[in-house]
Amino acid sequence: MHFHSNIKFLRRRKGRTQDEVAEQLRMKRSTLSGYENRVAQPALDVLMLFSDYYRIAVDTMLKVDLSKLSETQLRQLEHGEDVFLRGGNVRILASTVNTANEENIELVPVKAQAGYANGFSDPEYISELQVFQLPFLSREKKYRTFQLKGDSMLPIPENAWVTVEYVLDWTELKTGEACIILTMDEGIVFKIIENLIESEGRLILYSLNPLYEPYEIQVGEIREIWKFVHFISHEIPEPVIPENQLVRTVASLKQDLDRLKMGMKGSGE
C-alpha cells in the first residue's frame, strides 16, 4: 500500500508543511506525521479526507506509487484525469522518461501502428518503442512522433514523421488544427479537425488532399488526440504554383499543342 508515501509526496510536491496540511484537514500535526511515517493506519473516513483534499481517488492513493509517475502523468491526475475517479474510459497516459526523468518522444513507425492501436495504454508496449529527444521542444509537454501512411494529407508526403503534442482536454482544440487521432475502428489518422465535441459530441475530420471527403467521428470512438507540432521528411513538398504562373503554364501548353497539331497536318495526316 502506497498511501503513506503518497500523502508525503503530494504534500511536498505542493510545497506545503505538515502544519499547513494538518490545519486544512483539521487534524493534529502529529497525527498527520503518523500517517506519513506509517506509525498510524488511516480509517476509511481519513482516506476520504485525503482523497478530497488532493482530488485523487482513494484507490489511486492506495495502489499507485505516485513518485514513479512522469510529470505528464502527474499533471493528468492533478487535472482530474484519474481512472478511479472518472471511470474506465479515462486512463493515465503510458509514457517513458530518460535517466534525467525527462519525457521521451516515442517513435511510432507505420509497421508499429496496428500494434499501437491495441497497446497504446500498455506501459510495457510503449517502453519497447524507439525514443529520442528534441531540445527545442517544451519540457512541460508530452510529445510523440508518428509516421504517415497514405496520401490524404498531401502536400505533407507519405512516410513523413509527424511530431505531435498530447492533448488532455479535447474541448480546448480549435477548429482548423491538425491532429493525430487514435480511433477504435480506424486506428491512427492524421486530419484537420472541426471541433463539435461540446455542442454535438463529435469531430468532423478533413484531409488536406481534396480527393478525400470529410467524415465525422463520435467522441466515444476516440482514444487519444495529439496536436500537430511539425513534420520531418526527406521529400520536398510539391510547390504551389502562383495563379499568374499557372495561367502562363496553361498558355504555354496550349501553344505546344497547337504546334503539334500543325506539325501533324504538315506531315499529311
Task: Give keywords.
20% strand; 9 strands; alpha+beta; 9-stranded mixed sheet; 434 Repressor (Amino-terminal Domain); 269 residues; 11 helices
Describe, in plain words, how this protein is organized in 3D.
With 269 residues, this protein is α+β, with helices and mostly antiparallel strands. The protein has a domain at 3-68: 434 Repressor (Amino-terminal Domain), CATH 1.10.260.40. Helix content is 36%, strand content 20%. It has helices at residues 3-13, 18-25, 29-36, 44-54, 58-63, 71-78, 83-86, 113-119, 123-127, 197-200, 243-266; strands at residues 105-108, 131-132, 143-147, 161-166, 178-183, 187-196, 202-206, 215-218, 222-232. The protein has a 9-stranded mixed beta sheet. The longest helix has 24 residues, at 243-266. It starts with a helix and ends with a helix. The relative contact order is 0.09. Mean pLDDT is 85; it is low at 85-91.
Can you summarize this structure?
This protein is 36% helix and 20% strand. With 269 residues, it is an alpha+beta fold. It has a domain at 3-68: Orthogonal Bundle (434 Repressor (Amino-terminal Domain)), CATH 1.10.260.
